[in-house]
Each structure stands twice: as C-alpha cells, then as structure tokens.
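Severity: low
Component: inverse-folding endpoint
Summary: output formatting inconsistent between runs
Steps to reproduce: submit the following structure tokens with default settings.
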C-alpha cells in the first residue's frame, strides 16, 4: 500500500481530505480515502473492509481468478471497458467473443450463475451468451510509482504497461495515473495511450464505493444529473435491451439539486444524457444525518454515462462515471455511439475525476 497524507488545517471547522491509500499491485485500486468532517471527526470516505480482510480476498482464486475481488471495495479502475460486455460464450464457458468494427475480441468470461428450480433463470440473453465486466487491469502491477509533496498535500504518479491486456485486446496500451490529494479535493487522472500499431477501442471508468458515515441509508440522498437511463431485462443479468427511457416521473429521477432519497430502492442502473455544470458531470452523495456530502465530478467530456450501484440494505453508493454505455459492442444499440473511444496508434484519451466535500444545505462551491 502507498498512502498520500496531509495535515489538517481547518481545526475541525470545515470538511477536508486527510489521506489517500492505493494498491499499486492491484491496478492502482484506491483502498481508502480519509477526511475530517465538522462535528464528526475523521471518517472513511470509501466503503472498504480491514486490511486483513482485503488481503484474504485478493487470493487469485475463484472470483479473483481475473481480479474480480478488487471490485468489491474501495475504488477500482475499469479499463479498457467499464461495465458489462456480452458475447458468444465458448463451449467451456471460460471466454466470450464479441466484435468491434468487424474485428474479433476474445475476453475471459465470468462464470454463469447456476439456476435452481426455486430460482429459475429469468428471461434474457440465450444460454450461449457469456458476460464479462469491469475491464482487464484489476490484477495489473503499476510501475515507476512516485510521490511528491505539494503545498497542501501530496501527489502520486505511476504507469501500467497494459500491453494487449493479456492477449485480449487489439493493440498495446500504456496507462498513466496521477492522484493528487489536497484539503479541498482529490483529483484522479488516467491517460490511455495506444503504443501499438493497430486501432483499438478504449473506455475508462471507476467503481468507487462511497460510504454513508451515519449508517442510515434510508435518509441518504443522491443527485444524478441524468434525464435518461438504460432499460435492462432484469437486475439478475443486467442485459440491455437497447432502449433508453426518461427518468422523469419515476423513482429514478435524481435530478433535483438537493437529490432524492435512496429509501429502500435497489439500484444497479446506467444513467445517460447527462447535464454538465461548469463542464463537469456533478453527482452528489449526501448523508444529512452525518452533516456530510461528497461531489463526484466527472471532468472529461468523454464521460457519457454514470452507473449507480446501491443494493437494498447496503450502506454505500457506488458512483461509476464512465465513457460508455453498458455492453458497448452490443448489436442491441443498432449502431448508436456507445461511448467507446477509437485510438489510432500514438493517440491518447484521458479520464479525470474530482472529489470535493461539502456540508449539506450549504454552497458546495
């Protein structure tokens, strides 16, 4: 683990970030961010278990065979594709095949869920359809990790030489990371550069689990500046139909500046047609009972969707600001621009996220 730190300067009178800890050997996963909140003291911004629990989970077996355990805590980075991709499954179910501009991509598939008579498979994709999600760098080792002290905090830089992502991608890619910690903000920047000789599709996103310091999920609120959401067959498989529906008039309308309550709603949804404020996609997670809020600002113009994940009974909200729609290579979208960026050899694309703390009912800027 590598930790960036700074000393508190607000004497407890204003919210401020204190530290950021990340895992260079796990795709630069941000394990935890700490902050000081007026009236509450030091808190954990991200929902993560103990170091010992994480060490036991990251064992390279079962769901962690391809690094899947890295997505269950903190903030994992999802490259070269966030979210889910569906495709033709191999006979043994270990890989799936999809197409991009007439070229074949073979990906390591997630195991299909076993169905029982009591829980039959709901209607969805055919049995020969496989699924993969969350990208291909969850177990990647970062190189050249460097930290530097700044006027009000620290920064870290690193590079992952992803190559062809283990033989699964169409060209070779380098990923340059920069984390910057100050009292007022945490900035995360990732630049993907095509260092190979072929064109390739690239999308970037993150999977941060934001904790609710009060532990009271029912009164927590979220603001998502999206007017549309993707229709899926069900929450069991999350297979997109290729349709988008308006959020207006539904429980999924989180556009109010004050947000809307989570209540007991289960969320695992892809929101789009995003309104920007000062050029950013501003999502807010608000915990009034803790006098706490965090702005999750997507600063890259390539960010087209936000996946919100918050199962019933869980005391977190995952806010996944990403380039692409779910299943971006899927035929169900009928040629729609699904957000994948085409990188020609030598070209780059950058994803940038900024976190800012605020006190609810007070100006956040």
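Observed output (run 2 of 3):
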């Amino acid at each position: 683990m590598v930790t960036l730190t700074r000393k508190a300067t607000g004497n407890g009178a204003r919210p401020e970030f204190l530290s950021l800890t990340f895992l260079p050997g796990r795709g630069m996963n941000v394990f935890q961010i700490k902050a000081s909140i007026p009236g509450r003291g030091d808190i954990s911004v991200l929902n993560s278990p103990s170091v010992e629990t994480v060490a036991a989970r990251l064992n390279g077996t079962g769901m962690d065979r391809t690094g899947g355990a890295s997505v269950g805590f903190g903030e994992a980075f999802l490259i070269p594709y966030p979210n889910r991709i569906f495709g033709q499954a191999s006979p043994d179910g270990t890989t799936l095949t999809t197409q991009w501009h007439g070229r074949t991509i073979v990906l390591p598939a997630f195991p299909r869920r076993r169905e029982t008579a009591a829980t039959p498979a709901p209607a969805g994709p055919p049995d020969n359809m496989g699924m993969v999600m969350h990208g291909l760098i969850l177990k990647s080792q970062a190189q050249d990790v460097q930290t530097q002290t700044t006027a009000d905090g620290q920064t870290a830089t690193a590079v992952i030489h992803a190559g062809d992502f283990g033989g699964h991608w169409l060209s070779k890619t380098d990923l340059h990371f920069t984390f910057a910690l100050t009292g007022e903000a945490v900035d995360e920047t990732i630049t993907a550069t095509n260092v190979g000789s072929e064109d390739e599709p690239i999308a970037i996103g993150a999977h941060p689990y934001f904790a609710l310091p009060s532990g009271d999920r029912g009164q927590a609120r979220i603001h998502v500046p999206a007017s549309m959401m993707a229709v899926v067959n069900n929450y069991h498989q999350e297979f997109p139909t290729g349709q988008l529906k308006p959020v207006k008039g539904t429980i999924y309308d989180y556009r109010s500046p004050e947000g809307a309550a989570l209540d007991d709603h289960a969320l695992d949804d892809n929101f789009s047609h995003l309104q920007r404020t000062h050029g950013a996609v501003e999502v807010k997670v608000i915990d009034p009972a803790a006098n706490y809020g965090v702005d999750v600002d997507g600063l890259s113009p390539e960010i087209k969707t936000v996946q919100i994940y918050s199962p019933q009974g869980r005391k977190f909200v995952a806010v996944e600001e990403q380039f692409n729609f779910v299943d971006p290579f899927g035929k169900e979208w009928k040629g729609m621009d699904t957000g994948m960026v085409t990188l020609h050899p030598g070209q780059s694309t950058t994803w940038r996220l900024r976190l800012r703390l605020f006190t609810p009912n007070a100006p956040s800027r």
